[in-house]
Amino acid sequence: MNDMTVPNPSEATRVAPPAPLGMLAELTHRCPLSCPYCSNPVELDKRSGELDTETWKRVFSEAAAMGVLHLHLSGGEPTARKDIVELTAHAVKVGLYTNLITSGIGVQREKLEELANAGLDHVQLSIQDAESDNADKIAGLKGAHEKKRIFAGWVLELGMPLTINAVIHRGNVDNIEALVNMALNFGARRVEIAHSQYYGWALENRKTLMPTREQVMKAAETVERLREELQGKLVIDAVVPDYYARRPKPCVGGWGRQSLNVTPQGKVLPCHAAETITHLEFDYVTEKSLSEIWTNGSAFEAYRGTSWMKEPCTSCPRKEIDFGGCRCQALAITGDPRNADPACSLSPFHAKITALAIKDARPTDEGYVYRRFGAKPGQARVEITRS
Ligand code: SF4
Ligand code: FES
């Protein structure tokens, strides 16, 4: 087998995988915001190629039938789909717990009320910063922050639980305390302090997004203190970012173990950045059933379990805990997705990821490369703040 050949376990030895717990439905890549850390691919799917209503409904039915519990309605901005209420109602009808992952922009109160009436279970609202001018600058849209504040109020009025998600990077890492307090004031039950991960658009912007080690450590201390102070009032989810970690996280709970993503065009991915592993072949829900793709799809089989691993993972006692970390990050930094995630200090590439973090955390005058249709990797950096 050459170095990058995808392993293909024989049918005789393979055990069917348990059903995934969650499915992320990227209903559309259209979005009113242009965040430079967006995890969508640099090549965004166009509206004309999006799955139609009936196909999404069939996919949700298939997901429920195979045992999926949580459906994350995501994008882009999922409410940009005209059929969002119909899709949500169908997901609820087939027994899925529905979570709307939204920017809160472009959603009228009436639409949110229709979603609540359709049975939407939970809303996760993204916030760019606690300080509105900076938040608008990061989102690339003037007035966005104020609209989000109003949207959060509607979520509470309509009786739905609210989680605030804040992607953390150099542009807001010093404002963690204010961000957490803002989530509390918005009435959220949970806040996710999610350090930017460097795939897709964020990789284009690593030089402008990477915080220093000192900033990350100070943020971690702040989170620990706030967790104690706000116990019983607000749950704070946070993990150390990969570039400053000693051990990797089990990315997506382990490849092909707990979750799957469906893109706007119906391509089924083991994780949101899987398309960066260009030698993988992905199946479409328009050609095969979700269950068939999950169970036998070559992209899912490629890094499921532990048999594909190389040293140091092969002989590591943590291999069933973190599953070697992130395949996409291993490819991006080491050139081989079968390598240990370089976030792991046991990886021979760990020094490389540390050096990259130190280099990219240096101050720069460069602006963000904002996420938008048609933008090309390596293009001139631009500041756009639309109104
Ligand atoms: Fe995880 Fe591999 Fe590092 Fe062990 S060597 S901790 S399995 S990434
Ligand atoms: Fe693909 Fe981590 S983002 S495995």
> What is the assembly state of the chains in this entry?
single chain
- Biggest sheet descriptor: 9 strands, mixed
* Helix fraction by DSSP (H/I, runs of at least 4): 25-40%
Task: Quote the beta fraction.
Answer: 5-15%
Tell me the span between the first and last alpha carbons: 54 Å
Structure classification = alpha/beta
Mean pLDDT: 91
How many β-strand runs?
9
Supply Rg: 20 Å
Q: List cofactors, ions and other ligands.
A: iron/sulfur cluster, FE2/S2 (inorganic) cluster
Based on Cα principal axes, name the global outline: globular
Total count of helical runs of at least 4 residues: 14
List keywords for this structure.
14 helices, disordered C terminus, globular, binds FE2/S2 (inorganic) cluster, binds iron/sulfur cluster, alpha/beta
